Amino acid sequence: MTNVILIMLDSLRRDHLGCFGNDWIKTPNIDSLAGEGVMFTNAYPEALPTIPVRRAMHTGMRTFPCRGYVPPKGDNVLIPGWQPIPREQVTMAEVFRQHGYMTAHFVSTLHMFKPSMNFHRGFKVWEWIRGQEADRYRVPLSGDVEDPANLPCDLAYGCVGHTMEQCLANMRGWETEADWFPARTLGKAADWVERHGDEGPFLLCVDEFDPHEPWNAPRNNLELYFDTDSYQGRRVINTHGGPYEFGPGELEYTLAQYAGEVTLCDKYVGVLLDSLKEKGLWDDTVVALVSDHGHNIMDHGVIHKMPDHMYSELMDLVYIIRSPGGEAAGTECGAYVAHHDIPVTLMGMAGIEPPWELDGRNAWEWATGAKEESRDHATCIFYPWLWCRDDGYVYMTDIDGTQEKLYDMRNDPGELENLAREMRGVCDAMRELLWEEMDGNPPRYEVMREGHEWYEYPEIYDPTSEASRKILERRRARG
């Protein structure tokens, strides 16, 4: 039987890998994997961000267009689609386990283990590596969070991103590279392979939150891309999503921090893959490496993920699959694929029939030519914005259709000139594709992001409260 490994790296931009054309960031291990596998060049998320992606990736069912959204109790992220895997949906791990596979999950993505979440369903072994981003692992810092004195050691030169008061608190006690998350998450997965890899077929899922922000590359990685000796800007930069004003040299420093984290992730992907080879399992294992999305780093004037900025830097996925037999090694596949195709593809490569019809398709059959690809476009939702792409154009619109963007990807791959006014026919056709796939109008939600768990705000459910009055006024204004 065939072993299966799925590696998810959060916020990994496609254009930051050598195998996808980057000539300045060092990613030798992922590049090597791509050389032995297939790179999918039209891979895009079908619903954003973190949790909607993982729902699709673990079930083979689309999250788009995020109907039936109920805010999960115990979470302050209020985005339609951001909720547990529906009880009626079966997870990939449950299917593999029923077919005699040992199932294991090593995760540093905090959102998957928040109250009410259930993303460890079907895994016989699972471990949450604590402390990423806003994980409530330690008491948050108070005072000036941008003070470099908050950094734990010399190897941690700096940190860039939001939720700094929690992130830096969680980094207390770090001393060596072994304390960084890629070393811990991918390292634990490698140790598990060394201990248990020959005990029978396994499905091993590794979900590493890096290179998600905050970015805090070890100094040796950072200095591959940046001269720290001459830097005069802030070492700790507490950002916020949207337009952001950097001081002299600070954006270059931020880009180098991100690049350093990418290289760090690549190193420990190599550690995991080497454990397979040392165990003699390389020729018996399917390996898939994907990202959930990329990241905006001032490419179009904003930093961090923004629903109205669904540009290539956010939407282009890393999506690499290697067959144990080396079939189609070193090739590219231009079929339109997304996260809901991953379970069906991995089941098919392991010889497992899905328990019933899923939304996803076996992308490996498209890569090898066993079947003709069946899609000519991709669609996505990042509430309250929708996105559609085909071979010629990218189209974005808010759910009301009051704001639209259209880009000619053949002549304007940087998505700089909005053609929505000039090319109404193309906009209308792509809008029709979106509405057809939604089977009607998109759902509408009143989403209040107050920065705390929604159940701590009883006034939201009090019809006489100020919050309820404002919601009612907005509904009346819309008619």
Summarize the structure.
The protein is α/β, with parallel strands linked by helices. It folds into three domains: 3-371, 3-Layer(aba) Sandwich (Alkaline Phosphatase, subunit A), CATH 3.40.720; 384-438, Arylsulfatase, C-terminal domain (2-Layer Sandwich), CATH 3.30.1120; 450-479, no CATH class. It has helices at residues 28-36, 50-59, 92-98, 164-170, 181-196, 219-222, 250-278, 312-315, 342-349, 363-368, 424-438, 466-478; strands at residues 3-9, 38-43, 102-107, 125-128, 159-161, 202-208, 236-238, 285-291, 319-322, 331-337, 377-382, 385-390, 393-398, 404-408.
CATH class of the largest domain: Alpha Beta
Helix content: 25-40%
Number of strands: 14
- The number of distinct helices, counting runs of at least 4 residues, comes to 12
Q: What is the rounded distance between the termini?
A: 59 Å
Q: What's the story with the biggest beta sheet?
A: 8 strands, mixed
Q: In CATH terms, what is the fold-level topology of the largest domain? A: Alkaline Phosphatase, subunit A
Assign the CATH superfamily of the largest domain: Alkaline Phosphatase, subunit A
The average pLDDT is 94
Task: Give a written overview of the molecule.
- The chain has twelve helices and 14 strands.
- It has 479 residues and is of the alpha/beta class.
- It folds into three domains: 3-371, Alkaline Phosphatase, subunit A, CATH 3.40.720; 384-438, Arylsulfatase, C-terminal domain; 450-479, no CATH class.
- An eight-stranded mixed β-sheet has the order 4-3-6-1-8-9-2-10, sandwiched between helices. Strands 11-12-13-14 form a four-stranded antiparallel β-sheet, covered by helices on one side. A two-stranded parallel sheet has the order 5-7.
- The longest helix is centred in the middle third of the chain and has 29 residues, at 250-278.
- It is globular and about 60 Å long.
- It starts with a strand and ends with a helix.
